[in-house]
């Protein structure tokens, strides 16, 4: 299966993507994670991306599209993938169509996670992520780790992303509305969009998403 996950920052895309990719046995490809890995390794690509990410803006397409394409062309992705955070604007969606067409492939679904805006801000402000594995995500009140600052899964240190500050979150939401939301209409025209509510417990949302994808 080839799936695109869309939703505002804080919708739980990363959390859901990790579970869905596992259930569907396809790799979870997150452009945000790829950028963060490049930043922590100090690569040139990471240096280019960092200032845009810290400001809550999109990293330019010429950097992002090549990076996403390289990842989609790796061996583990031949039978499908779950894209989390890519595409994030119509130009990227068009570039993805070109990549897929060249391989005679198609998307199966675009899963749109819906969540009210005030909930988004609460979720992001309390979000804590494991330094060892970004799919280990906690929340200081909704999904608190057993021991403060320590990942329940692997014992790694939990941290708050630099771009999870309130000011940057507001900018990321604005970018989402102006640049990313238009891809939902782009994919609606291809009859690919399934919208589900991202409210509720993590496993409830995963079950909802799996049901929607089966249809
Ligand atoms: P995420 O982890 O998906 O929330 O992404 C964090 C940040 O990485 C975003 O706010 C952007 O600055 C950058 N980013 C991730 N994916 C993309 C993309 N497809 N296009 C441009 N920038 C991206």
UniProtKB/TrEMBL annotation:
List of residues binding AMP: 31, 36, 57-59, 85-88, 92, 161, 172
Q: What is this protein called?
A: Adenylate kinase
What subcellular locations does the record give? Cytoplasm
The record's section on PANTHER family has: NUCLEOTIDE KINASE
Q: Which GO terms describe its biological process?
A: AMP salvage
Keyword Cytoplasm on entry? yes
Q: What is its EC number?
A: 2.7.4.3
Residues that bind ATP:
10-15, 127, 137-138, 200
Q: What does this protein do?
A: Catalyzes the reversible transfer of the terminal phosphate group between ATP and AMP. Plays an important role in cellular energy homeostasis and in adenine nucleotide metabolism.
Note on domains (UniProt): Consists of three domains, a large central CORE domain and two small peripheral domains, NMPbind and LID, which undergo movements during catalysis. The LID domain closes over the site of phosphoryl transfer upon ATP binding. Assembling and dissambling the active center during each catalytic cycle provides an effective means to prevent ATP hydrolysis.
According to its UniProt record, which reaction does this protein catalyse? Answer: AMP + ATP = 2 ADP
* GO CC annotations on file: cytoplasm
One annotated GO molecular function is: AMP kinase activity
Q: In which family does this protein belong, per the annotation?
A: Belongs to the adenylate kinase family.
Q: Which gene encodes it?
A: adk
Instruction: Give the organism, scientific name.
Output: Streptomyces showdoensis
This protein's pathway:
Purine metabolism; AMP biosynthesis via salvage pathway; AMP from ADP: step 1/1
Say which enzyme class the record assigns.
Answer: transferase
Q: How does it assemble?
A: Monomer.
């Amino acid at each position: 299966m080839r799936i695109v996950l869309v939703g505002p920052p804080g919708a739980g895309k990363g959390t859901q993507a990790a579970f869905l990719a596992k259930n569907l046995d396809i790799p979870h490809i997150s452009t945000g994670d790829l950028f963060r890995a490049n930043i922590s390794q100090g690569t040139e690509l990471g240096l280019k991306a960092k200032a845009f990410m810290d400001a809550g803006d999109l990293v330019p397409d010429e950097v992002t599209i090549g990076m996403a394409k390289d990842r989609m062309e790796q061996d583990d992705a031949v039978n499908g993938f779950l894209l989390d955070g890519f595409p994030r604007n119509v130009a990227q969606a068009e570039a993805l169509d070109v990549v897929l067409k060249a391989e005679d492939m198609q998307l199966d679904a675009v899963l749109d996670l819906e969540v009210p805006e005030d909930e988004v801000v609460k979720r992001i402000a309390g979000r804590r992520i494991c330094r060892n594995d970004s799919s280990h995500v906690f929340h200081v009140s909704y999904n608190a780790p057993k021991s403060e600052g320590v990942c329940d899964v692997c014992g790694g240190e939990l941290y708050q992303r630099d771009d999870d500050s309130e000011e940057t979150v507001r900018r990321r939401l604005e970018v989402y509305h102006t640049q990313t939301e238009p891809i939902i209409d782009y994919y609606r025209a291809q009859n690919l969009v399934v919208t589900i509510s991202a409210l509720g417990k993590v496993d409830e949302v995963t079950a909802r998403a799996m049901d929607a994808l089966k249809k």
